[in-house]
């Protein structure tokens, strides 16, 4: 017998967790002498009331959808991929190499090839940790943390010593050729002379992220592989008994996870910066953890959570611009969301379960 | 390379190894009791900020140290609450703590001091001053040993000596006391400890709090000993290097000392030389940066001496199954 109806588990628990995180964030804002209501209004104004605000919000959302799905795939196989950051960095390298060295006739071809390159590079970066987890029993959390740092060193070396144009000071590649520039929302939706989405970085990759959500749902709930991943995640011994190879599922699900992280680089590197910079990921790999936890590893949840964090990121930038609240407020909110939806899940869940059990008992009596 | 250069590199090795060592021993206590802790970084960061902030305001480094320890203990308390009381995921709790520290320190620093997320530079009584050990001056004339004593062993701040003393102390507590035996047992087979009538929850909280105390020392040393004040993200991945050292040391105190000294040496060399020229082959500085992590992955892979973590690590203890 389930202790709680499914809707309460899927909707009520995350909502209460977010509410707790929001209350604590408001207290933090009060403590540094600002008004939380004004701050929230400013965030809404900056992120949602202007088309360029939406352009930034959806740009961040695109990043977080990819990294959120990356963490979610691993969660389904009961693994914690904390290496999305490193996989996205290396994915960016793949995207940059494709854009720099292949002469593309049109952006759509470039997008397709860069997608393959970024995905393959990201997946490759997840290969060694997943192999070590599957074959040697090394804990995937520790190895992926280590690989984040190794990725940062690799990227640093490649950018400073190999890909930096001669004479340039900052560690970044040359700007990609014009044929690889992706159409932004402004190019796609703004009529001639209109100010719609002006100057904002959201681009065609957003639709790719939405497609990834649909593909994710199809993969996990409608294919044999997805079934095997979920079965393995629920019980390794049962999965083994059913003839599912733990080694294969561990490696394949981590490859998919790393590949999704690598795709994030399409948005930041090809869509926005149009060159590869050192800090292209900006911590999005870690935000994926919060997004996946909050979205309960379901694509709809991940999409909504990514939208919320996109709003927080753009709203946080507005706050930093107009008030004394630094952008780090968003890091605090992110930490609280991870804490309540992930680590302190039982704190929210236990009283709720009691409540529902009590209600059911009363119902039976009456 | 002459003796002076070698001594300078080794001297900075000792100083850079100190925060790693304290954090590594902190992780040792926690993980030996079965509580994984990837939040070492966050605790150090919180302690670094609190110690620098209080030392800057009061002018007393000792009050700063106390504040650093309190801040780190608070973070430990959250970790304990999430992973022991509410049986949550210890890894996710650690991630949350790292972000919480990373965000809150800058937020509060900006609010208190308004210097872009840093504290004012500490001066005079706000810092731990180097201690000159007895006879360091008198013996410095003795060839080789004199300079080694005067430059390398003498002239560090008190927390460096505390850190190195913590190694035998940790070994003694863990391997020669009843508390240590129980602490190790609770990380291997908590159900056995429970059957013996010893509180699993109590032991694990004790371990997590010791971890907080040591991380507090590590963070305070960073901000008031190694450097003079707090800057944002000043731990710069040291918590993760300490975690790597812990695995490298296979969860043992004396090995932890050698692992931290090795990783400290790598940091010292990377700090002093940008690219190392070995007769035609140039080792880029990024290799030095990545080496601790690469070594750890190799060790974890089990090709060179397998690292086996405590058996009950990461598992919340549920009394009845």
From TrEMBL, chain B:
Pfam families linked to this entry: BPD_transp_2
Topology in the lipid bilayer: Multi-pass membrane protein
GO CC term, one of those recorded: plasma membrane
GO molecular function: transmembrane transporter activity
Signal peptide: none
Ranges that cross the membrane: 12-30, 42-59, 91-113, 153-174, 205-224, 230-249, 254-270, 290-309
PANTHER family: GUANOSINE ABC TRANSPORTER PERMEASE PROTEIN NUPQ, SUGAR ABC TRANSPORTER INTEGRAL MEMBRANE PROTEIN-RELATED
UniProt name for this protein: Nucleoside ABC transporter membrane protein
Source organism (scientific name): Salipiger abyssi
């Amino acid at each position: 017998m389930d202790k709680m109806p499914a809707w309460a588990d899927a909707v009520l628990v995350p909502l209460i967790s977010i509410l707790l995180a929001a209350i604590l964030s408001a207290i933090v804002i009060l403590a540094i002498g600002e008004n939380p209501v004004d701050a929230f209004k400013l965030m809404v104004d900056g992120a949602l009331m202007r088309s360029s605000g939406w352009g930034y919000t959806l740009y961040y959302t695109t990043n977080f959808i990819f990294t959120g799905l990356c963490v979610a795939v691993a969660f389904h196989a009961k693994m914690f991929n904390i290496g999305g950051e490193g996989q996205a960095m290396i994915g960016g390298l793949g995207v940059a190499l494709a854009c720099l060295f292949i002469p593309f006739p049109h952006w759509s071809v470039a997008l397709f090839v860069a997608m393959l390159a970024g995905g393959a590079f990201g997946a490759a970066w997840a290969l060694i940790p997943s192999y070590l987890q599957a074959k040697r029993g090394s804990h995937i959390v520790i190895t992926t943390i280590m690989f984040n740092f190794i990725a940062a060193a690799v990227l640093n070396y490649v950018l400073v010593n190999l890909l930096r144009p001669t004479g340039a000071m900052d560690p970044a590649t040359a700007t990609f050729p014009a044929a690889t520039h992706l159409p932004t929302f402004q190019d796609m939706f703004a009529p001639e002379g209109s100010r719609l989405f002006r100057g904002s970085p959201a681009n065609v990759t957003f639709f790719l992220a939405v497609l990834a959500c649909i593909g994710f749902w199809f993969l996990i709930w409608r294919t044999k592989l997805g079934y095997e991943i979920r079965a393995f995640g629920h019980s390794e011994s049962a999965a083994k008994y059913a003839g599912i190879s733990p080694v294969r599922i561990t490696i394949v699900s981590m490859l998919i996870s790393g590949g999704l992280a690598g795709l994030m680089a399409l948005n930041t590197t090809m869509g926005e910066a149009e060159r590869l910079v050192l800090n292209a990921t900006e911590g999005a790999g870690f935000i994926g953890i919060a997004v996946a936890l909050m979205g309960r590893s379901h694509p709809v949840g991940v999409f909504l959570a990514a939208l919320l964090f996109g709003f927080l990121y753009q709203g946080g930038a507005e706050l930093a611009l107009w008030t004394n609240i630094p952008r780090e407020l968003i890091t605090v909110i992110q930490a609280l969301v991870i804490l309540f939806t992930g680590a302190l899940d039982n704190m929210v869940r236990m009283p709720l379960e009691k409540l529902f059990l009590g209600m059911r008992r009363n119902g039976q009596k009456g | 390379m002459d003796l002076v250069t070698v001594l300078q590199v080794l001297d900075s090795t000792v100083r850079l190894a100190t925060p790693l060592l304290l954090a590594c021993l902190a992780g040792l206590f926690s993980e030996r009791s079965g509580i994984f802790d990837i939040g070492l970084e966050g605790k150090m960061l919180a302690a670094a900020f609190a110690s620098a902030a209080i030392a800057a305001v009061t002018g007393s480094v000792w009050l700063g140290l106390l504040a650093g320890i309190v801040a780190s203990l608070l973070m430990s308390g959250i970790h304990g609450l999430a992973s022991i009381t509410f049986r949550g995921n210890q890894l996710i709790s650690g991630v949350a703590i790292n972000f919480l520290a990373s965000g809150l320190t800058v937020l509060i620093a900006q609010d208190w001091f308004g210097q872009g997320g840093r504290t004012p530079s500490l001066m005079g009584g706000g810092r731990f001053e180097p201690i000159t050990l007895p006879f360091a001056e008198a013996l410095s004339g003795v060839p080789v040993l004199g300079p080694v004593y005067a430059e390398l062993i003498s002239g560090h701040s008190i927390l460096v000596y505390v850190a190195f003393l913590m190694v035998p102390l940790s070994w003694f507590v863990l391997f020669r006391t009843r508390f240590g035996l129980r602490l190790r047992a609770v990380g291997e087979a908590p159900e056995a400890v429970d059957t013996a009538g010893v509180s699993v929850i109590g032991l694990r909280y004790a371990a997590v709090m010791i971890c907080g105390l040591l991380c507090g020392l590590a963070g305070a040393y960073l901000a008031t000993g190694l450097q003079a004040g707090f800057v944002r993200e000043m731990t710069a991945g040291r918590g993760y290097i300490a975690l790597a050292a812990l695995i490298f040391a296979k969860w043992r105190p004396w090995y932890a000392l050698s692992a931290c000294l090795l990783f400290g040496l790598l940091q010292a060399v990377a700090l002093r030389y940008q690219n190392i020229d070995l007769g035609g082959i140039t080792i880029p500085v990024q290799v030095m940066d990545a080496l601790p992590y690469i070594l750890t992955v190799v060790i974890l892979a089990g090709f060179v001496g397998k690292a086996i973590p405590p058996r009950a690590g990461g598992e919340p203890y549920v009394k009845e199954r």
